[in-house]
Write a structure and sequence with these properties.
four-stranded antiparallel sheet, Immunoglobulin-like, binds ligand H79, about 25% helix, about 425 residues
Length: about 425
């Protein structure tokens, strides 16, 4: 790819900032992993892990019928959790398409459910006011022209390997372009595109295999406002991606490249697997998930939190319970999330807490992860705070100066919310 910025990538920093305004404000989205792998219900990589052939995997395609699917319910649940956008797997590595693509027969409209489930989902989430994101897998373990490589389910099958010589990666590149074009022209405005993933090197795949630069050129032309992740293997360029996408990983601090802070969105699961996994039993708790959201915003990032619906088309009860718990907290505390970012240097974080900051309103939020007994000392805050209140009930928190510090007198009992937030209105 062009190491220098190509002519079509001519956006200024200010224009980029404008394009990403909503994304910087909202911070919280729902990832949805839904495909045929919801049927075996043992990880979305099941085809790879168990080295299942196309023929063996057919039983899922032949029996896919999510009869209880109601995307309006999904959208309502996302909204009530405080999520402002969603990103749906239009196609995962298994190659199955959730929309009525004209470039393949391996699609939802040819399964027993027969309907374009993607179209219904986009309409439902948009109607609830959520922004629309598409996940699209660059990897495709079903397409006839996708060469077997070291992470392909048939990697150890000599016959399948030998067939690589008849495959034409150029045809697969065209398929990527055709499908991405469908996704970006037939569903209205698409706000985020999440491409997954590159693994360059011997027996892997990267920008040359995907023809990444030309693919991105098409994306930018069709949807000039779209926000794209960083998995096309286009290096450290300032035009090849809009945000970094750490996966099931919480960065230590605001993510940076060459010493410069960059946009980032961490994607996280409830239980480890992205696709519905029946037998996974170690799920994160509601307070853990709330802390994860706060920590993300305290480091200037976004959180994309995943749900893996079942093959009947439902969120399972464990997911429902988590979403509800997060929503309950957001109802009273979302002011400390939306429009917020990392606190400016000069505000030291008290122990067992996290800070978020709203620059427009000059408000600093202290998220108290472990409730202290009666007082909280804010070291070096003298002269910086006009007023303080607990966010969940808006009750005043009185404070006094002690040297350079402010000492807050806390309510006698921990406020009745998973993570209490103290709002400081700054001078
Ligand atoms: O869709 C979800 C996952 O299925 C997908 N991305 C999220 C959003 C994903 N799973 N794993 N990965 C992305 C990264 C995979 C890395 C590995 Fe490997 C595959 C580790 C070992 C095999 C490729 C080859 C990277 C390192 C060696």
């Amino acid at each position: 790819f062009a190491q220098t910025r190509p002519a079509w990538a001519n956006e200024t920093d200010a224009q980029k900032e404008e394009r990403m305004k909503w994304w910087h404000n909202d911070h919280f989205g729902m990832f949805i992993h839904w495909g045929l792998y919801s049927m075996p219900a043992r990880h979305e990589w099941v085809r790879n892990h168990e080295k299942i052939s196309n023929e063996e995997y057919e039983k899922y395609f032949n029996n896919f019928e999510p009869d209880l699917y109601n995307p309006k319910e999904w959208a309502r649940k996302a909204k009530e959790a405080g999520m402002k956008y969603f990103v749906i797997t239009t196609k995962h590595h298994e190659g199955f398409c959730l929309w009525d693509s004209k470039y393949t027969d391996y699609k939802v409209t040819n399964t027993p459910i027969k309907r374009d489930l993607l179209k219904e989902m986009v309409d439902a989430f948009r109607a609830e006011g959520l922004k629309v994101g598409f996940y699209y897998s660059l990897i495709d373990w079903h397409h006839p022209d996708f060469p077997v490589d070291h992470i392909h389910p048939m990697r150890d099958n000599a016959e399948a390997r030998a067939a690589n010589s008849k495959k034409d990666i150029k045809k697969y590149q065209q398929y990527l372009k055709n499908q991405v074009t469908e996704l970006l022209t037939q569903f209205g405005k698409i706000d985020e595109l999440w491409l997954d993933f590159s693994y360059p090197g011997k027996d892997g795949k990267g920008h040359e295999d995907w023809d990444s630069e030309n693919l991105l050129k098409i994306i930018r032309k069709l949807q000039p406002g779209i926000i794209v992740n960083d998995r096309l293997d286009l290096g450290d360029t300032d035009w090849g991606w809009d945000f970094k996408s750490p996966e099931q990983f919480m960065p230590k601090e605001w993510v940076s490249e060459k010493g410069k802070k960059v946009n980032w969105e961490t994607c996280q699961t409830f239980s480890g697997s992205w696709g519905y996994h029946r037998d996974e039993t170690s799920w994160k708790s509601v307070p853990q998930l709330i802390s994860m959201l706060i920590e993300t915003v305290s480091k200037g990032g976004n959180l994309l939190l995943n749900v893996g619906p079942t093959s009947r088309g439902l969120f399972d009860v464990r997911a429902d319970e988590r979403l509800k718990g997060i929503g309950e907290w957001m109802k009273y505390n979302s002011r400390a999330i939306y429009g917020c970012t990392a606190a400016p240097a000069g505000f030291k974080k008290p122990d067992n807490s996290l800070l978020t900051y709203n620059a427009d309103r000059k408000r600093l939020y202290v998220h108290v992860l472990e409730w202290p007994i009666d007082v909280l000392s804010l070291d070096g805050y003298k002269g910086k705070v006009k007023y303080a209140q607990i966010l969940n009930d808006g009750s005043e928190v009185k404070f006094k100066e002690e040297g350079e510090n402010l000492v807050l007198r806390l309510p006698v009992k921990k406020p009745d919310t998973e993570v209490p937030v103290i709002e400081l209105i700054l001078e």
